[in-house]
Design goal:
The chain has 146 residues and is α+β, with helices and mostly antiparallel strands. Helices cover 45% and strands 18% of the residues. It has one domain (10-144): Beta-Lactamase (2-Layer Sandwich), CATH 3.30.450.150.
Length: 146
């Protein structure tokens, strides 16, 4: 079972964003949006690359929010949407905020494995979005949930 604690720090959130954005530039990704949520689903930090479409914030939020709501990364939510579409439809209709069941939403864990927040990235392919999220989490000295 996943354990949650109050919140990721603003400092860690900004480090995650910096790391994810740097990874995106190094990999020559399309413009990214990176959003970090605390365990209550409240935004802690957010950055939109120049040239990123306006809807990317909502997609990044849906990836991170869905991961927090169900307690699994958004890649797994996508698998669950195929396996049990009625479940994901029900969850999407019952949680506060959006749920986007594709890769790019990653739970952030401390050294003990406790979830302290989630990162949502949108802008490139879902796989690349997820890789950028993980790179940012790693840059902050934290762990990405499996």
């Amino acid at each position: 079972m996943t354990t949650f604690q109050a919140s990721i720090t603003a400092e860690a959130a900004h480090t995650i964003i910096d790391g994810a954005m740097a990874y995106g530039r190094e990999q020559q990704m399309k413009p990214l949006v990176v959003l970090v949520l605390d365990t209550a689903g409240a935004p802690v930090a957010y950055l939109r690359s120049d040239g990123s479409p306006s809807g990317r914030f909502d997609i990044a939020r849906g990836k991170a929010n869905g991961a927090l709501a169900v307690g699994v990364n958004s890649r797994r939510l996508g698998e669950m949407a195929v396996e049990r579409p009625h479940f994901i439809d029900g969850v999407a209709g019952s949680i506060t905020g959006p749920l986007v069941p594709v890769a790019g939403g990653v739970l952030v864990c401390d050294a003990d494995g406790t979830v302290i927040g989630a990162v949502g990235v949108s802008g490139d392919t879902s796989d690349n979005d997820e890789a950028a999220a993980v790179a940012g989490i790693t840059a902050a000295g934290l762990n990405a949930a499996e």
